[in-house]
């Protein structure tokens, strides 16, 4: 085995609670979201995990989640790299809209296609495929080397940027990856082989 890669979707945000399309907008965590992030740290602590480096997005909900996890592990000052490559999918014209209002405006079927198709973006936004096009190179060039060197790496990011990463790690197809649901604040622990394939996966729900 080579190293360990831990993926965590941020805790519940204020806009998750309000059923709004969030995308690249930057609301903070709810009280529940802070609790979820802290609980994620405790779960990882119970596993005896310590990180060598952390990666997160340019958005505060992921950064706060990352910090809560590191605080729980006594690693508050760990080197943490923030990069927009790990940002949530950009929902374009849907950003900030209530999902029910969007359905009323464009129709339930069209909104469902934008949300759950792999390669159809909403107006002015990104598809999951587009999101992957920035996540995959960043993982390959900046993150993977730490895992393959035997390190333990934390990634605190978003539902769709993590879906794109999981798609590459596990070799999941486009139609199947959009069906994958990621809980807020739930750590996914991967052990990778030296050839970068997945040796094991453990979801700490």
What does this structure look like?
With 205 residues, the protein is α/β, with parallel strands linked by helices. The chain has one domain: 3-Layer(aba) Sandwich (Rossmann fold). The chain contains 8 helices and 6 strands, in the order βααβαβαααβααββ. The protein has helices at 14-17, 31-46, 60-72, 99-106, 108-116, 128-148, 159-170, 174-177, and strands spanning 3-9, 53-56, 80-82, 152-157, 187-192, 198-203. A 6-stranded mixed sheet has the order 3-2-4-1-5-6, with helices on both faces. A hairpin with a 5-residue loop joins β5 and β6. 38% of the residues are buried.
Give me the CATH fold name: Rossmann fold
What is the H level of CATH, i.e. the homologous superfamily? Answer: Phosphoglycerate mutase-like
* Biggest sheet: strand arrangement: 3-2-4-1-5-6
Structural class: alpha/beta
End-to-end Cα distance:
24 Å
Which regions are unreliable across 5 or more consecutive residues at pLDDT < 50? Answer: none
Mass-distribution shape: globular
In percent, how much strand structure appears in the residues? Answer: 15-25%
Number of E-state strands: 6
Number of helical elements: 8
The major β-sheet equals:
6 strands, mixed
The average pLDDT score comes to: 96
Give the helix level as a range of percent. Answer: 40-55%
* Rg calc: 16 Å
The CATH architecture name reads 3-Layer(aba) Sandwich
- List the helices and strands in order: EHHEHEHHHEHHEE
